[in-house]
Specification:
By secondary structure, this protein is of the alpha/beta class. The chain is built from 10 helices and 7 strands. Helix 1 packs across helix 4 and helix 5 packs parallel to helix 6 (182-195).
């Protein structure tokens, strides 16, 4: 996680460096323009003379005229910049943080976006551009109940994304058999939120288990890098819960901590699973089950349909 975060910071730093480079390059080119250079020199002399006059060092014959001209010259300089197509002011990619990635020591939306994209890539999610609501195509030759279930899910997720993170429902569990379309649906949501600048972590349950085990078996001050995203992200998506092995002192203990912490911080979590609610309760015990199915802040969706992948 630390390496990925550093890569995200490096991307932001490259943008800042480039913005400074272009501004410096433009300034150098402006200095080569005779008209611009003459105006700049005139402004410097006017400013100095007006200051000397105010200090009583010299007495300008036409003070009012000099002050008026001192107000006109910056406008002429600005007009010359536009005429030449050269802006010496630094044009940062992100106006909110000036391409530092931080605002009051908190991650800016631009950094969150880059971090989420890198995390998606590290999760082996390729062809991210196909995961968007506008490109969703309902499968053909499937039952009406399957189509209706998927359409209801897509409509709900789209509305959820449009209002994110303003929702009382911060937990969503999507249950169905294998290959019914739930994984594609949550990837569409993840990509949508990432493009809006939210910090999204997508992981399979198996991948989550691996990171939890690494944290458990690592004796280093930096071991939190393996799991910090699971706690800090605006949205955590755990795909295929129930396919991972149940590791002693790892799976249930950490999963509860993650879900409970995110619940207390009002952070959003989505889980997909092939298991139904009763099996989930038996496998993950009541305390985890209660975090997933609390009526006050959780939603449970069941997709009824056949395996789409079996049709290919």
């Amino acid at each position: 996680m630390n390496n990925i975060k550093q890569k995200a910071f490096d991307i932001i730093k490259e943008r800042r460096d480039y913005a400074h480079y272009i501004a410096n390059l433009n300034q150098q080119n402006l200095e080569k323009d005779k008209e611009y250079a003459q105006l700049k020199k005139e402004l410097a002399l006017l400013t100095l003379d007006i200051a000397k006059d105010q200090a009583g060092i010299i007495k300008l014959a036409k003070v009012a005229s000099a002050k008026k001209r001192a107000k006109e010259v910056p406008k002429l300089l600005s007009a010359r910049k536009k005429e030449l197509g050269l802006e010496s002011e630094i044009n940062y990619f992100c106006k909110n943080c000036s391409d530092t990635g931080l605002i009051n020591n908190e991650m800016c939306q631009c950094l969150k976006r880059e971090l989420s994209k890198l995390l998606m890539q590290s999760s082996n999610i390729k062809d991210v551009e196909i995961y968007c609501f506008s490109k969703i195509k309902m499968p053909k030759d499937v039952s009406k109940i399957h189509k209706d279930s998927l359409q209801k899910l897509y409509d709900g997720l789209k509305n959820y994304a449009e209002n994110f993170p303003n929702s009382n429902k911060t937990k969503l569990t999507i249950s169905s058999g294998t290959g019914t379309g739930k994984t594609y649906a949550v990837k569409v949501l993840a990509n949508n939120l990432i493009n809006k600048g939210f910090y999204v972590v997508y992981t399979t349950a198996f991948g989550l288990n691996e990171m939890l085990l690494k944290h458990r078996t690592t004796f280093s001050p930096e071991k939190d890098k393996y799991i910090e995203g699971f706690f800090q992200s605006d949205m955590l998506i755990i795909d295929d819960l129930g396919t991972e092995p149940n590791l002693n002192n790892v799976t249930l203990e950490y999963l509860y901590q993650i879900l409970n912490e995110r619940l207390e911080q009002n952070k959003h979590t989505i889980i997909t699973t092939n298991l139904d609610a009763l099996v989930l309760r038996d496998r993950y015990e009541e305390r985890i089950h209660s975090r997933l199915f609390c009526k006050e802040n959780a939603t449970y969706v069941v997709i009824k349909g056949e395996d789409l992948r079996a049709r290919v």
